[in-house]
Amino acid sequence: MTEAGALAGDADRRFMAAAIRLSRRHLGLTGTNPSVGTLIVRDDGAGPRIVGRGVTAIGGRPHAEPQALEEAGEAARGATAYVTLEPCAHHGRTPPCANTLVAAGISRVVGAASDPDPRVSGKGYAILREAGIEVFEGVLADEAADLMRGYLTRSLKKRPEVTLKLALSADGMIGRRGEGQVAITGAISRAQVHMMRAESDAILVGIGTALADDPALTCRLPGLSARSPLRIVLDRDTRLPPGSVLARTAREVPVLVTAASDCPTPRRIALAEQGVDFLAVDVHEGHIALPELLEDLAARGIMTLMVEGGAYTASAFLDEDLVDRLCLFTGPAEIGPGGIAAPLDPAHGPAGFRLLREARFGDDHYREYVRAG
């Protein structure tokens, strides 16, 4: 927390927490822009009340601030704006959000995360201060940044934030050889995974998992099927069957196959006829070059990538040091002989990561780790 953030009161932290919760509403739906939350809060002597709310619109425009100001109307004059990310300062076809806050007569702005975009960083707050607006930065900055880590990672590293999700048995296995999908965790954990999918831009599996499990990789929570992410298959040789669930549903939920330039043309044509799209990839020592793949996905606007696919794919991302977040769901039962060992030791926590949160989902234990530092 910054010095200014440390000066904020309990009410500021409470309203910022509410703005952060609001920002979650459009995670995975805002294109190349982050999902930002804004609250306009006014106090006329009877206590503070929210008069305007806004969250980055689906597709990325309009931003949260003008939506919240429009809802507040004249009540915004003299009010406080709570923004989960520094207001933008660069001109497009619409004015910067910082200038919009000034024009609306906002008297105080409480901000959370900083924006690394050089067109914004520090400049949005400077516009506000030059207009005489009181600014408090860094209030619940870590909490806000955690939800927009995809945007921050893409801005700084030119690749998506990579979340590796694994379901582990009590004896550290992720499946049983030759048996396809094995139920390791319970229904509550599976529902949590579907919510993670709904908040991600894309989900990725290796071709081994696609062949063994024939997964759908969609969000199947009631009312959220439309939020199913782009589905990506690491498939150097285009082995995905045209009759697979992924291929047969490609016109409903997009599927992207990452294939080398020398993959067999008839296979590509058969999948293309089903609506499958392709992304040409570099190959290094016979394997898809993951760093270059992530750069290409970021260039397509993908900010958050959820990796669900198998021990081999999980190990590849870990070995390349490309994992930013680890989500481990551990079930109560053991798999025993014939099990597929997890690519990490869950008992001691992965090196280079810190534990962010823990939870119980029915009989399952959930641990979430993020990169340390």
Task: Describe the structure using short key phrases.
single chain, 373 residues, alpha/beta, Cytidine Deaminase, domain 2, Dihydrofolate Reductase, subunit A, 2 domains, 9-stranded mixed β-sheet, 13 helices
At a glance:
The protein is α/β, with parallel strands linked by helices and 373 residues long.
Provide a descriptive summary of the structure in words:
In the N-terminal section; belongs to the cytidine and deoxycytidylate deaminase family. Its EC number is 3.5.4.26, 1.1.1.193. By secondary structure, the protein is α/β, with parallel strands linked by helices. About 30% of the residues lie in helices and about 25% in strands. The strands form four sheets. The chain has a nine-stranded mixed β-sheet with strand order 11-10-9-8-14-6-15-18-17. The longest helix is centred in the N-terminal third of the chain and has 14 residues, at about 10-25. It is globular, with a radius of gyration of 23 Å.
The N- and C-terminal alpha carbons lie at a distance of 14 Å
Roughly what fraction of the amino acids lie in strands?
25-35%
Give the total of beta strands. 18
- Which runs of at least 5 residues are low in confidence (pLDDT < 50)? 1-6
Q: What's the CATH architecture of the largest domain?
A: 3-Layer(aba) Sandwich
Output the CATH topology of the largest domain. Dihydrofolate Reductase, subunit A
